[in-house]
Automatic annotation (TrEMBL):
Cellular localization per UniProt: Cell inner membrane
Record carries keyword tRNA-binding: no
Listed InterPro entries: LipA_acyltrans
GO molecular function terms attached to this record: acyltransferase activity
Official protein name in the record: Lipid A biosynthesis acyltransferase
Main subcellular location: membrane
Organism: Prosthecochloris marina
One cellular-component annotation, GO: plasma membrane
Record keywords, A-Z: Acyltransferase, Cell inner membrane, Cell membrane, Membrane, Transferase
A GO BP entry: glycolipid biosynthetic process
Amino acid sequence: MVSLQKKWRRFGQQVIYRLFLLLGFLVRRINRYQFERLAWAMGDFVYYVLRSRRRLVTTNLTIAFPEKDGREVDGIARRVYRNQAVNLLEVLRLPLIKGREDADELIDLYLDDFLAKTRNEGKGGILVSGHFGNWELAGVCIGLLVTPIAVVAKKLRNRLVNSEIERLRCLYGNSVIYKKQALRDGLKLLREGGVLTVLGDQSDPKGGFFMDFLERETSVYLGPAFLALRANVPMFALMCRRQENGKYVLEAEEIDTSDLSFSRDGIEELTRRYTRALEKYIYRYPEEWFWVHNRWKRSYIDKK
């Protein structure tokens, strides 16, 4: 027999799933001005209500930006919440993108170097991004406007919401590779000339490699560097940020691998390089990064 706890868990997942679908239904029926106002209101609500989480955000920002005073930090924190709400609702509006014209109105792509190294040379490539800007929108628009890609993702606990998110990610030819199969399936894809997108600002639960990230030491995931050097494909740091006019800009910066070999030292050095590239964007546009989670919960001291 199914335990009462499992029944309540399933019921809760059903409720969240239905609310998720309802929110998507609603935001696809309002114009962009109304959508933006709704997102800002949602962001402000969470910012003011969830005080413990807000303290985590302001603490993270204060450490990363010691030169900023409390008012500046609070201003960035509030914009962080607004941007995360915009990102969520923008993902729910993805079905409104019916073709290239819709995507062109929403985003500007600057991917010439990436295309020169992959499409023109007939090679696969890795796009390493982070929880920066609208990373979900970036993947979908690349799939629609440039080439289908595979997205490395972690399965959500709510399988119903996970299936809906996967459907949205795969709307325009993309595919999803879940983290447990990422090394095997990702390597196969790259060797066949495919493009793999992975978030490179996540901690490694095994805590194998530690480095400074935004002024604090933390564990860093070596997977993207392992795949790039093992498959001998180019790597680019991919960033999708929102401009003041509401339109997104998508940029890809190549990470030099010419002097690196497939070795432990090479993998660690490439990890440092793409992490520094991600840091550069975060420092320049701090309101775009996901400061809401405790990125530094795994430190070298904790490991010891």
